[in-house]
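User: Assemble these into one structure.

Assistant: Restating your components, then the assembled model:
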Amino acid sequence: MSESNELLWRCGRCDEALEKKKTVFSYLGRSFTHEVDVCPKCGAVLIPRELAEGRMAEVEEQLEDK
Amino acid sequence: MIERLNLSKLQAEEITSLSASCVAGAPPPCARKCPFGLDVRSFTARAEKGRWQVAYKSFRDAVVFPELVSRLCPAPCAGACSRSDVGGAIDLPGLERAVTALATDKRRDSYAIPRKAGSVAVVGAGAAGLSAALSLAVKRCGVTVFERGAAWGGALRALPDFDVFDAEFSAGFLSLDVNFRFNSEIHALSELSEFDAVYLATGDGGESFGLFDSFDSTLLTTAQPRVFLGGGLVGAELMTAIAHGRLVARSVETFFQIGRATAAADASVCSWTPDTTDIAPVQRLVPSDGSGVFTDSEARAEAARCLKCDCDICLQGCEMLRRFHKLPMKIASEVYTDIGANPPYSSHTITREAYSCSNCGYCKRRCPESIDVGELLRVSRRARVEGGSAPPALHDYWLREMDFSSSDAFTVLPPRGKTTAEYVFFPGCQLGAYNPDYVTRSFAALQNVFDVGLFLGCCGAPAYWAGDDTRLIANSEKIREAWRLLGEPKFIFACSTCASLFAELFPEIEGVSLYPLLAESVAYDTGGTTAPFGAASVFDPCSAAEDEAARAAVRTLASGRGAALTELEESGKCCGYGGHIRLANPSLYEEITSGRVAVGELPYIVYCVNCLAVFSERGKKCAHILDVAFGLKNSIGQGGAGMPDIDTRRKNSLEVKRLMVRELGADGSDFIPERDPWDDIELIIDPETAERVDRKLISLSDIREALYLARESGGFFTASDGTRQCSMLRTALVYWVHYREPREGVYEILDAYYHRMKFSEGEADE
């Protein structure tokens, strides 16, 4: 299993270290912000597996049920 | 023939009618016999818990005089009691007496009800008159009782227990405003002209002042709107006469409100009785006390014997319904209200239920009224798609597979050298995907006997289950057109889901199951092949529940190949694949699939390739009937082959098409699948990771495509340990691949995952 959370990531295109930044997420017509790793230069967003299959999956299910 | 759901014209009745005949909550057989319509289920449930007070109050509310009724009721309920054959009918009068004895607080709850404007004269102070007077007084009507005798009770006065009843009457009227006029015989209705309503309860052979002929027994009304009749006067026996008291109180009340008596909403009348085959007998209790009244513990035990008969047969049979614990009528009403849900202002309430149903039809087959909860929930899925609020991720994978089956893997081949066919073999989208031999060997066997062509495509089940009418209609039109071009042949189905869906969508197309043809013609050429298991059980797919011919043929084929068969105790339920619920409700999918593999200890012989895949994935020994019939050893389920991953299944489907085009097409015909630019990307992936990713329904092709896009765009991330990560945005999902690139162009896959949310990527805020 990957443990991307503990790794230090850089943007492959810009070679910039990623920084935590508020990002807008949307699903089924609703949106909200959450802080994730983002390239400070190009804005590319990195979602680690733990977030995708953990908290995000929970929120996705809650929104589907609403 | 299917039409798209027209949401703007959809009426509530169209949905609620799908469950309207549900008998859940309807009066049980005993209550249907009770003159008072006592809610026996609640009464015995309360008694079982020792809740004497509430049991007493509900009993008194129904029967008016608990002491009288519990002692004198002949208990017509006993004759209808479902316990009769398994220990003896419930002693309901015994329980009623015990409840009446054990309840200590018999005071009436007092409510601040304003006094009714109308006044009522009750003529006769026998059981019927007293019951009416008390019921009317409780409703705060001004009541005057005229009795020609010197005291109340009428015919009851002759009974040995009259002192008990007398005390009950006294206690009952103690706090109520009822004016009793004894020694007051009424000779003409004109004497009662000051009253707004009159109830004549003058007893058997009593005076009706000429109104008997116009008497209506449902509302106790007469030709004179303000005059009502009841009790022995209209021929009622004692218990019905008492029950008339409550009925006339309701009639008088509505008469005061709107000028005429009206009936309460009709209680649904049904003939349902529970199946007591599996109920353990428990003998009826006899009070140990010399007084003949149950003690506290005896009453609880006797009440516990009551089966509380209520139909929840659909809940009992279905893991999904049991989990959500919703009965058909509630589901129907939520399906309708969900269509109008407008988040965030109002929420959906039935999403998870709708997307957790296998559409296997088991509920419909078990239901005494044949209610199909699956159809109800499919209305919900269709409405969600039509209204644009369906969560696309839940069915995206299968809809993409359907699109593949209906495009790249699709072909229609008449018999070699012909343009039309008498028969066409429709193996279904997954049969050849799991093993191309299933299709080629079956076709070869059919070809020996029939003028048969081949139709490779999808029946439309993924769109049907997703509620995607547009896709389903498009696919159906494609099938219908090809069928016409082929000379309208009969379809031979290997998959019973295809068969049942065709029956619904294409009533004009004649269809037949492959298995009876194989069993009857013994057309396969592998005589003497032994079954992979000496002893096995046939697991029938849910969609073959009504296909007796297929069920019998599979058993004939399996036995003929040397498998000693033991029937499973449970049959007709979906393996877990149906409805494509896996992503919508993973834990339910887990519960269902683990339950199905444990129904029988022996290996399973299946004849639905999806059952085969589901059971193999759970490690259950199993074989497809085509493995058995043709002696195939290269299939999943027997340890002869690993589970083909998503890409291999797609390749197998294309391989079937290639083989059959070569076999049936004109000389030199061939089929060369189109290639994507990422097909040549070399992957290294350990088996454990490959299986984990495959179970998330992420294909290696998806992974290759994501890597290709990252390589082309340079859009990836590098980590401090040298690994990389890239993503790919698709309509329903965002895919992520975590990988290493040990040498240029070679990718070692560490993980892959997805999420359903989208994020806004762009220039960073300053």
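Chain A touches chain B at residues 1-2, 4, 7-13, 18, 21, 23-30, 36, 38-47, 49, 52-53, 56-57, 59-60, 64-66 (CB under 8 Å).
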